[in-house]
Amino acid sequence: MASIDWDDVRYFLAVGRGGSVRAAAERLGVNHATVLRRIAQMEQRLGVQVFEKRPSGYRLTAAGEEVVEFAEQMEASSHRLEARVFGRDQSARGLLRITVPPFLADLLMPDLADFAQRHPDIEIEILSTGEVANLTNREADVAIRFVVDRKTLPLNLHGLMGPQLAGGVYVSRDLLARWRVGATGPIRPIVINDRGVPDWASAGEIKATGAPFRAPDAEVQLAAVRQGLGMTRLPCFVGDADPMLTRAPGVAPRLNGALWILTQGETRNTKRVRLFIDFVSQRLAGRAPLLMGSSAPDE
What we know:
- By secondary structure, this protein is of the alpha/beta class.
- The chain has three domains: 6-87, Arc Repressor Mutant, subunit A (Orthogonal Bundle), CATH 1.10.10.10; 94-158 and 256-289, Periplasmic binding protein-like II (D-Maltodextrin-Binding Protein, domain 2, 3-Layer(aba) Sandwich); 166-255, Periplasmic binding protein-like II (D-Maltodextrin-Binding Protein, domain 2), CATH 3.40.190.
- It contains ten helices and eleven strands.
- β1 and β2 form a beta hairpin.
- The chain is globular and about 75 Å long.
- Keywords: DNA-binding, Transcription, Transcription regulation.
- InterPro entries: LysR-type_TF_proteobact-type, LysR_HTH_N, LysR_subst-bd, WH-like_DNA-bd_sf, WH_DNA-bd_sf.
- Pfam families: HTH_1, LysR_substrate.
């Protein structure tokens, strides 16, 4: 039997996890034909069929199920090797991958630009997503994440706690003005990921009524509340900084968790990672009043 190519294993795992060649191609940044060729190459070397194509997608065969365990062991070994070698890199150059939530990416962009100017030899890649990047699999080198309970952090991650983060309930200034002069009609709860107006907002002067408006992401959520569709929960640093929005009257913001700067394993020892963590932790500390909702403009 010919030796197995690690690159073929990556494609095999991507199809198995995504359930389709298309999903694997998008994840790996290649075309459909490349994925098919890699899978066929692996099956030829193993002498077995690892996937069965069905109308619902690609399903592992019995042989493919056996291959998964060994493929994941190869993947884990590869990631450990990469992390160890990466951790010994003490040069202030090379790629630095950072993941931040969408709203926070906007807030930190001036700081990220400043860091890039100070360190022109560091190639910066920003992954702005609400998903938690897999640091163990080296999808990112540093993750800045909102964490409600530090006990939920995986034990293999190293974390530096930043400022606490406050959330509040916001409406558009135009909607509030109409409501104050007696406008009728529902003020919808704007919901994202099943999170909309919290229960503790019920003590406020305005009540969310009517069918919810479901936003698929943070950008649509913000656009909807600006448009006056209703009220929603936002981080205070987003709502307070937006001139079109205001806090819902009678609803005080609440602290609920903190920002954490996370790394994994040997990665934290790399010079460019240490430079970034030192830099961004100071910048976040300087923005603590805004993040904690204590610097709202006067009405």
